[in-house]
Specification:
The protein is α+β, with helices and mostly antiparallel strands and 382 residues long. 18% of the residues lie in helices and 25% in strands.
């Protein structure tokens, strides 16, 4: 197997999601982890390429090589061999393998061997949506051998991508229980970090709730108000997001100021100024959202259905055009999980599928966001 391993992604013919392969019981074996699966997949790669020297850059999550996992292999020698490969630079191991794996695939154009759909990473890597060329999945034959086949990565709804991304984040923070469910006893509370200014992202380490960034113990501030998350898309890429507290019947305004953290290269000023200061009025009622247009540009809405053509665009009801004397609450148009609102051409607002959005939006990933007036949620009209 060593002849086919390369520690440098640029020198390898293929990329491999090593943890995914070693843990895949559908490839055979009874133990949770096995290097026999890796041997079978490398043999399948030689068959697929017709090249006995075809090479892979294999990346593992750190926990695959955790000494506490030795009992999950058929024998202690397998974990020792993995750690020897790591020491010799034949494989790579990092906290989370997926981001590096996909970054290499994007930059180098190298195919990835994995049975993961990478749903939670499609916000950063929209090229995965519907891809049928860049991923190979190992499949077991009836005789016990393994073959490789091109994997249809399918198209997943935006809310599914958000949910998967949140699940991956909660897992990294140790905030999933043994059944894989979010630990609501932590996520339903508000927390304060002793290091200011810090809007903490809670994590559990050694049984204690700590700040993910600083590792300091967090103070419990009481029950956390439920929040909904809205994603601001520019030319199909999420450039910022906003959180909305689920206060029943409370109206909020979203406008140009909430896009202030999106830099000029991503949102040119010529387009930015077309977005009104008070562009949309949003209200939450019993867990559902309603929206009214308050802009001069006039926004529109449509529904996206996975695997089907988008519904036709429809104009949003405008605050100035409702029937005279009609109750205000009847003017709002529903804003569902599969809907998107076009503020101006190329700038779209969508619902996120996250159930536990953070206290503050990350904005542009490259650097901390610039908040409007120091606020951490949409402007209230109250």
């Amino acid at each position: 197997m060593e002849r086919q391993l390369r520690g440098d992604a640029a020198r390898a013919d293929y990329l491999m999601d090593l943890s995914n392969v070693v843990r895949d019981r559908e490839l055979g074996g009874r133990t949770p982890r096995s290097l026999e699966r890796l041997r079978l997949v490398l043999a399948a790669l030689r068959e697929w390429t017709g090249d006995a020297e075809a090479t892979v850059h294999a990346i593992a999550d750190d926990n695959l090589l955790d000494p506490r996992s030795a009992s999950e292999f058929p024998g202690p020698g397998e974990l020792a061999l993995l750690r020897d490969w790591l020491d010799r630079g034949l494989i790579a191991s990092i906290a989370k393998a997926d981001p590096d794996l996909l970054d290499h695939a994007k930059v180098l154009g190298t195919r990835v061997i994995s049975r993961d759909y990478f749903r939670g990473h499609r916000g950063e890597h929209p090229w995965i949506q519907g891809d049928r060329e860049h991923f190979l999945e190992p499949l077991r034959r009836t005789d016990g051998s393994v073959r490789l086949a091109l994997r249809d990565m399918r198209v997943f709804a935006d809310r599914v991508i958000s949910q998967e991304g949140e699940h991956d984040d909660l897992k990294a923070r140790n905030l999933l229980d043994f059944r894989g469910r979010p630990r609501s006893e932590v996520l339903e509370r508000s927390w304060r970090c002793p290091r200011t200014p810090c809007n903490p992202s809670p994590a559990i380490r050694a049984g204690k709730v700590v700040c993910r960034a600083h590792g300091t113990l967090l103070a419990d501030l009481g029950k956390r108000r439920p929040r909904l998350q809205l994603k601001i898309m520019v030319d199909g890429v999420c450039r910022a997001w906003e959180n909305l507290t689920e206060d029943d019947g409370r109206e909020f305004v979203l406008g140009r100021g909430h896009l202030a953290r999106i830099e000029e290269p991503h949102l040119p000023d010529a387009r930015r100024v077309r977005i009104s200061r008070h562009h949309l009025v949003i209200v939450s009622r019993r867990g559902t959202l309603g929206v009214l247009d308050a802009s001069t540009a006039r926004s529109r809405i449509r529904t996206l259905r996975p695997g089907r053509e988008p519904a036709p665009w429809q104009p949003l009801p405008h605050v100035d055009e409702g029937p005279e004397g009609a109750p205000r609450e009847r003017l709002f148009r529903g804003f569902g999980p599969d809907d998107e609102i076009e503020l101006v051409p190329g700038v779209v607002l969508r619902r996120s599928g996250q159930r536990w959005p953070g206290e503050r939006g990350d904005g542009v990933r490259a650097k901390p966001p610039r908040r409007v007036r120091g606020d951490d949620e949409l402007t209230s009209t109250d």
